[in-house]
Design goal:
Radius of gyration: 53 Å
Number of helices: 2
GO cellular component, one term: cytosol
Keywords: Coiled coil
Order of helices and strands: HH
Protein name: DIXC1 protein
Strand content: under 5%
Oligomer: single chain
InterPro entries: Dsh/Dvl-rel
């Protein structure tokens, strides 16, 4: 019972103490709280500005890398176009050579037939001459 009584007395003193705070003290306490809040907001703003600056720097860096990759890509495309042109030129030359080779093969076959025919005629003529 004594403990409870002491507890309630302490609580009553605390409540009276709160009631007896002067308006100046209350105003000063409120100013202190506002200053603390302003300081906290300033710190948050500073952090936010630093984060913003860091993001801006990262963005600039990424933009630079993107431009470099685009430049390299353009160079590779240019090289690829040149190689495609060379490849097309070589393909055209190859096709022409194959056509000429095919033509030469047909001529060779024709010449071989003509030679066989002339050899047969010669053999026939020599046989007839030998008979006469």
């Amino acid at each position: 019972f004594q403990k409870e009584l002491l507890k309630y007395k302490q609580e009553a003193r605390n409540l009276q103490g709160i009631k007896h705070i002067s308006p100046q003290d209350a105003l000063q306490q409120r100013l202190i709280q506002q200053d603390a809040s302003v300081l906290q907001l300033k710190q948050e703003l500073l952090r936010a500005n630093m984060d913003k600056e860091e993001l801006h720097n990262q963005n600039v860096d990424l933009q630079r890398k993107l431009e470099e990759r685009n430049r390299l890509l353009a160079e590779y495309k240019k090289e690829l176009c040149q190689k495609d042109r060379h490849l097309q030129q070589h393909q055209t030359k190859l096709d022409e050579m194959l056509r000429q080779l095919s033509e030469a093969s047909y001529q060779q076959v024709d010449l071989e037939r003509e030679l066989e025919h002339k050899e047969a005629l010669l053999a026939h003529c020599m046989k007839r001459e030998a008979e006469e």
